[in-house]
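Notebook p. 47: complex prediction with heme C.
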Amino acid sequence: MKFSPKSLIAVSAINLAISFAQMTLANAEETYPQSQGWTQVEMRQWYGLSQGSRLAPLHWLKALKAENGTPFFTRANLEKFGYLYFPNQTSELPVGFVLDITTGNPYPWLGLNCSACHTSQLKTDKAEVWVHGGQTMADFQGFVTAVVNGLSTVGSDPAAFAEFSISVLGAQASADEQAKLKNELREWLAFRGPITKSGADSHWGRGRADAVGVILATTAMVVADPHIAPAAREPLPASNAPVSYPFVWNANQQARLQHNGVVDNGTNLGLFKVVKIGALIRNWTEALGVFADVKLDGDANKVNSSIRLDNLLLLEQALADLQSPVWPTAFGALDTKRQARGQAVFKANCGGCHGLLDHADTKTNLPLLSQPSKQDPNDPRGFIYLQPVFDKTSRPSAFLKTHQPSPDFIGTDPSMACNALLHQVPSGRFEGQVNVAGIVPSFADRKFSDRAVTTDLLRVLMQRDVLANRTRSLMSIGENQIAAAGGVITRYAYGVVESFTGQDVGQDPLAPLRAQLQFCAAMADAARARAPDSPLPVYKARPLNGIWATAPYLHNGSVPTLYDLLLPQKQRPKSFGYYDGLMDTQKGGLRDASQNPKAFIFRTYDAQGYVIPGNWNGGHEYGTTLSRAQKRDLVEYLKGL
Ligand code: HEC
Ligand code: HEC
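Predicted complex, structure tokens below:
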């Protein structure tokens, strides 16, 4: 071993503390970053705690070469993927890149914690602001693919392996040690390779990731039958529904989590600070998707995982205190007259679905609203609303008439909500096992057959790990609470159904969307025939405080500014350059970076003119018929939320 893990962790913790101290001193005026209600301790937890994420051993990453032969793991290279460094930061690891060191683990692994994905750096030509809990503009897919490709080269090219081995093990390593390294590398590639490949047909780009796709693909890999060689396995369903990273302030207050509202936040755990069981379960599944090391033991009954439930609790407690950021004066003063007029426009056009919440309110619960029209838009208490993706009576044709505003269905890209419901894979090592961790009586007779809805497999995996976790017993988190939270994930899936063949692939530009939608609608019908309360796919409308800081908009990040969202689909930008957080402060959102050769060009349509599923920028046609002046007033109001 060439370094001491202890000294490394100490150094990075100290660096983090120093950089916060410097930031606070140097930028007292503009509170940089704004504390958003956090104490220094909470900030350090958010940016420093490991959730048990283990992408790869740190010394592997340090030994890795980029395609051009230069070292891969350098600040300059990681910045190319859009990962951030705080001003004055001396640590070599970007924001949110955290070492995972535990007893029994021979060397530190590098992983990501929440802050790698949920932090934004926003800029104008004159000022720069950091937002805790905002959205990264990093290229997660590009970064992970580069690591997988780099390690594949090491695995297949003897010269590259020799060099890698010297760097990792030292020049004196024995043949046995080298063989062991090779084996570890092979295992790593066999696991990470297929997950990464599941997204290969879809370009997620900057600021987007198919988090749910990756979580479900990882679940499939954990339960996969080891007797079937990886190459002989059925390919994983495509992870082709990249989403924009949501802001995470007020998450703890919402009755449902995720863009598609699939996680019930559930009941409070009764700890020192408010943490809800659903949040903990959500974080567990997120940690699984973000490189936690999760394995089934010999008879697949026990789960061995690196997931740090203790730290997930601390991270969630910090999150529960996070306020939404306020528009920085350095970005230009807001026009109060416009805001006052915009408020009236908001109440008349938006308030029925988007509840209001004061920016400093981290306590009020936001319940689930069943009918948007029933809510008094003057009621200051917030709520969330889950809106169907398509209309249950006239789909899918109604969906495609999205130029007509409809209060009934949202009409935005269906990929994310549909993929999550329809993902199914071989049950692998869970085949024949009871589809429940011994908790939910109504499920007790159900056994996994050869195929399963992946969310079912995920729930059982999660329940087995959390139930056996020491932190859980210390915190006396009830079995029923875990069962209830996990049960909702499952109730949202449609069950294993025959595949649908009647796809209508026409010549019109929306043909791919139509085919996908018909498939999803047919599945929904089949599910409803079996269980009438099966949900339609939905997306969540939240209170919009802090929305100014979280472009691009809609769950799939297909609309770059608030102003563009108020245009009918045909007038919204069809392509747009996403690079970093350089803002268009007038329109409220991102400035087009197409001119920058390093930018990711987001496109709604492919070169043949067909819509790219996952990238549809239509739907949510609310406020589109307002006058230009009213739209500008509304944007000014939204910036001040
Ligand atoms: C690799 C990037 C990544 C990491 C790391 C990550 N998240 Fe997320 N998070 C996402 C994405 C993407 C979504 C959207 C998923 C969806 O609903 O499709 C999300 C969704 C969420 C949501 C739901 C928000 C809402 O409006 O419903 C919360 C809350 C959240 N994350 C909190 C956390 C916490 C806490 C951590 C650390 C314990 C964390 N995230 C780590 C990428 C990440
Ligand atoms: C009938 C319900 C409804 C109405 C009315 C409505 N919205 Fe929405 N809104 C939603 C839903 C549902 C979503 C999530 C859609 C998605 O992400 O695909 C959303 C998303 C958004 C987003 C994107 C949030 C993000 O994190 O990217 C913004 C901004 C927004 N709405 C603003 C408005 C404004 C401004 C109005 C009024 C002109 C309005 N909405 C009217 C239901 C509604």
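Notes: Residues 1-32, 437-444, 500-504 have pLDDT under 50 and may be disordered. The radius of gyration is 24 Å.
Next step: compare against the earlier run before touching the bench.
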